[in-house]
Design brief:
mainly alpha; 75% helix; 151 residues
Length: 151
């Protein structure tokens, strides 16, 4: 794939949805693009504002929390795996509305409580808490909201 073809392809993808440099790099490698061309394409996309890491991090956090019901820890981990700088991750996580986040966690907990089975109430509560923790939610917040749901 030539440099101009790679740029056109990547610019089209960026126009459809937010992508980070890591995503573009991976996709261009799959299309057998030369390493020098990959770097040139990414630099040009950043220069022309097709790619903005801060904008990507904010959109990623919003989408994963609202639509996939992930917690802060899981979202932050996923962003780190995409080589997003830590300061962008912190800024994006600070944009989360606390009430919306708590509401989403309540939905996750209530949904899991309806389906979990255990030997005792304590056992069920531990299974629900472990589920929420695997989704990336903070354990102290999970137990706080579990207390409110059981009241």
């Amino acid at each position: 794939m030539t440099l101009s073809e790679a740029y056109s392809w990547a610019a089209h993808r960026c126009a459809l949805r937010e992508l980070c440099p890591f995503d573009i790099e991976q996709k261009l490698r799959q299309r057998d693009t030369a390493e020098a061309d990959i770097l040139a394409v990414i630099d040009r996309l950043i220069e022309e504002k097709y790619v903005d890491t801060q904008r990507y991090a904010s959109a990623f956090v919003r989408d994963k929390i609202r639509f996939d019901h992930w917690g802060r820890h899981k979202v932050a981990y996923a962003l780190r795996m995409k080589d997003i700088p830590e300061r962008y991750i912190r800024e994006a996580l600070q944009e989360i509305d606390a009430e919306e986040y708590r509401s989403i966690l309540c939905q996750v907990l209530a949904g899991k409580q309806r389906t979990v089975r255990g030997k005792s109430e304590w056992d069920c509560r531990q299974k629900v808490a472990a589920f929420a923790q695997r989704r990336g939610f903070e354990l102290d917040l999970v137990f706080e909201l579990l207390e409110n749901l059981n009241d």
